[in-house]
Amino acid sequence: xxxLLWLLLALTGTTVAATEKIRYCDYPVYPPISxxxxxxxxxxxxxxxxxxxxxxxxxxEIVVLGNWKRCLLDAAxxxxxxxxxxxxxxxxxxxxxxxxxxxxxxxxxxxxxxxxVKFERLEDLGNYRGGLLFGESYGxxxxxxxxxxxxxxxxxxSRQNFGKLIRGxxxxxxxxxxxxxxxxxxxxxxxxxxxxxxxxxxxYLRIAVSRRSALAERMPAIDAELQRMVDAGxxxxxxxxxxxxxxxxxKLPAHAQ
Length: 257
Prior knowledge:
By secondary structure, the chain is α/β, with parallel strands linked by helices.
């Protein structure tokens, strides 16, 4: 039987190929982009990656590490193939970034009303103590500001960060506006946490492929498929669904999640 099958394949010029597996690293603490329900990673990011690379013929393995910095390091070293990230000059040394963005993101400054912060331009934040997650970068100017002032406390969890802001241990958090507002909606004690109206910056979340991955040769195909998904409205639909799902999830009792 097998001999007959291979003969038919040989005659038709068809080959049998196993689906190639790629590794995608996520740090799921950024709803609605990605978060964990305790069992699996959910949100816009894993949905986009699985659909995008599935359409290109790949099986996606999701890898979750201890913090975002570990994801970026593993991508740089080629231990994982893909992450979703902002493009920076340093990251571009080890990763290729899609020319088609996945999502436009507005970076806001979150503060505690009980401890007012004056913010009109980046340098104003040099007078205050801030909080960031390990590995976060909001552009070259911001990275230089952080290095120059040394006024940032680094943590691995967004809830820990906002908890410090609630208790007055730090003065501000820089966070994507959509994600920050979702986090504080149901965070105990967060009634006084607000996003300032002025944005710190606007950036774009992109598919980032390790330069050490075989996927690096497929960037044109990745951009083309990503553009098709954007044009079809798939990404906007998943974003809206992800926000609604996260809000529903956090309202459930802990034992039901």
